[in-house]
Amino acid sequence: MPDIYTAIKQDHDEHRELLDRIAETTGDSDARKEAWRTFYYEVKSHAAAEEETFYSKLISKTWGQDAARHSVHEHQQLDDLMEELNEMDMSHGSWLEKFKTLRHEYEHHIEEEENEVFTRAREVVADSEIEGYGARFLERKEEERKLVDDKREDSLED
Ligand SMILES: [Fe+2]
Ligand SMILES: [Fe+2]
How far does the centroid of ligand 2 lie from the alpha carbon of residue 114, in Å? Predict the structure, then answer.
């Protein structure tokens, strides 16, 4: 079982590939729909599991709070962008424009997680304290994947 840092990094690499794949698609093609759908569910469940495992540990440390709050805030902003894309017509050029914004923001987010945030976490969270979190993260992610649609409906009702 990978440790939490490796598990998150492996996901990010998969997300980078999906972003590349989406960027190569055109219009409202099946290829774009399929790649976008995969990316959407993948990132939603990844971010939720990250918050429930990795960030909840980091935020419990005085010197981890700023980094954790910053990342969770970015999750919210990324979420808003993804929902806007969900609502937009894929055949319009504006979809690709907005996707490029999302891609830029998302790549920045995961790069920051892998560098600044992981560095901070390694400083303030002992390895022994976060042992088993890789498995926990992957389990939560599976659970969250089943909740993506319900959670979206709830947030749209709010
Ligand atoms: Fe994240
Ligand atoms: Fe992440």
Answer: 8
- Show the domain range for 17: 4-157
Output the CA 122–ligand 1 centroid distance in Å. Answer: 16
Tokens of 65: 């709070």
Residues of the chain with pLDDT under 50: none
Residue linked to tokens 């590939």: 17
Q: What is the pTM of this model?
A: 0.96
CB neighbour list of residue 5: distance below 8 Å, 6 or more residues apart: 118, 121, 122, 134
Tell me how many domains the chain contains.
1
**What are residue 131's phi and psi, to 5 degrees?**
-65, 135
What does the pLDDT look like over 62-103, one tens digit per residue?
A: 999 999 999 999 999 999 999 999 999 999 999 999 999 999
Find the 10 Cα to ligand 2 centroid distance in Å: 10
Q: Ligand 2: distance of its center to the CA of 47 in Å?
A: 6
As given in the structure block, the two tokens for residue 122 are 């390694």
